[in-house]
Design a protein that fits this description.
- This protein is α+β, with helices and mostly antiparallel strands.
- β2 and β3 form a beta hairpin.
- Strands 2, 3, 6, 9, 10, 13, 14 and 15 form an 8-stranded antiparallel sheet that branches. Strands 1-4-5-7-8-11-12 form a 7-stranded mixed sheet.
- It has 3 domains: 3-113, no CATH class; 118-241, Jelly Rolls; 252-323, Phage tail protein beta-alpha-beta fold (3-Layer(bab) Sandwich).
- The radius of gyration is 22 Å and the shape is elongated.
- α1 crosses α3 (40-57) and α4 (61-69) packs across α5.
- It has helices at residues 3-19, 26-37, 40-57, 61-69, 74-93, 99-103, 106-113, 261-268, 296-306, and strands at 117-118, 125-128, 134-137, 142-148, 151-158, 161-164, 176-180, 183-187, 191-197, 200-207, 209-214, 221-224, 227-232, 235-236, 240-241, 253-254, 257-260, 275-278, 286-288, 291-292, 309-315, 318-323.
- It contains 9 helices and 22 strands.
- This is DUF4880 domain-containing protein.
- GO terms for molecular function: sigma factor antagonist activity.
- It comes from Janthinobacterium violaceinigrum.
Length: 330
């Protein structure tokens, strides 16, 4: 994030705190209105703050669950449409707050709501599959399992998985595939991770190899162990070295090796709700170590104790890592 954008975003978060304080008055409201009206960048930043606030509070889960799990009657279908329409409206009217919905199509988003296997933000699960394969679901992951007589299929709607495949006991052996919105991956006796991202899916292969076939055309490509690649509609990028610590999350930890602080915080932000930002002046700091994911606040405290940074909490859901102010001389 450019320094100017970061500063405006922080201003917006501070205004949010001022307006919701118990002692906020008409003068505060009028001052905020002047700030808000003075720049399109201010308005965009304000939408971002409102969106993160809405994401942190969440839509009440029970009405959505009742509608989405209801039987297929006309009344149930109407409730389902109403819930989805309301969620769409919430996401789209809060600007970047509809990040999940804006980053992938509505069909995949609704599929995530109804997925047979899922994890909440901050949760990690391990599943033993029917064929003996082991599957890990990272934070905020949604998928469906479809093991049929001719195919072993994992439909990944969002999030990230790590898969350690097993030999199929059936003869002939059924292919094992992972489908994302961007294409199909076929396991060739392997360990690999898959993460749909903005406009592409990231595949990292740690053992064996994986065949990549983009959804909208393009020749399939086999990616060997030790390499990773991004692929999207009709394209496969150039393979590059896989991060050997990229799957440390299956052991409930992040393990940076000379990782920039802003990149580390981007990873950490996936495991907590709300906004976790990094001031430009400390973004370049490098991290090495192992950080248990059980408590993200403890990780932030460790950063503050070991780096020249401070943790600024404007709200429970708005946290930024900033430069430690210079010590004043006595």
């Amino acid at each position: 994030m450019p320094p100017a954008d970061y500063a405006i975003l922080q201003e917006a978060a501070e205004w949010f705190a001022v307006l919701r304080a118990d002692d906020a008055g008409p003068a505060d409201q009028q001052a905020w209105e002047r700030w808000h009206a003075s720049s399109s960048a201010h308005r965009a930043a304000w939408r971002r703050v409102e969106a993160v606030s809405a994401e942190f509070r969440q839509v009440p889960a029970q009405p959505a669950r009742e509608a989405l799990d209801a039987a297929g009657s006309r009344e149930a279908q109407a409730r389902r449409r109403a819930v989805v329409k309301g969620l769409l409206a919430l996401c789209l009217t809060t600007g970047t707050g509809g990040a999940v919905l804006l980053r992938r199509d509505t069909r995949s988003w609704v599929a995530s709501l109804n997925a047979g296997e899922k994890t909440a933000v901050g949760a990690i699960r391990q599943l033993a599959l029917a064929d003996g394969s082991q599957l890990w679901l990272n934070t905020a992951t949604a998928l469906d399992l479809d093991y049929s007589p001719g195919l072993r299929r994992i439909a990944l709607h969002g999030g990230e998985i790590y898969l350690a495949t097993a030999r199929d006991s059936q003869q002939p052996a059924r292919p094992l595939v992972v489908d994302t919105v961007h294409g199909r991956l076929r396991a060739l006796g392997t360990r690999f991770s898959v993460q749909p991202q903005d406009g592409a899916t990231l595949l990292a292969v740690y053992e064996g190899s994986v065949e990549v076939a983009p959804r909208d055309g393009g020749a399939p490509r086999i990616v060997p162990a030790g390499r990773q690649v991004r692929f999207g509609d009709g394209f496969i990028g150039e393979p590059f070295a896989a991060d050997p610590n990229g799957a440390a999350w299956i052991e409930y930890r992040l393990q940076p090796e000379q990782m920039r602080l802003d990149d580390f915080l981007a990873q950490l932000s996936r495991y907590r709700r709300g906004h976790l930002g990094c001031a430009p002046e400390v973004a370049h700091l490098r991290l090495v170590g192992s950080y248990p994911l059980a408590d993200t606040d403890r990780i932030l405290a460790a950063l503050e104790a070991t780096l020249p940074v401070k943790i600024n909490r404007l709200h429970d859901w708005w946290v930024t890592v900033e430069a430690q102010p210079p010590q004043s001389k006595q």
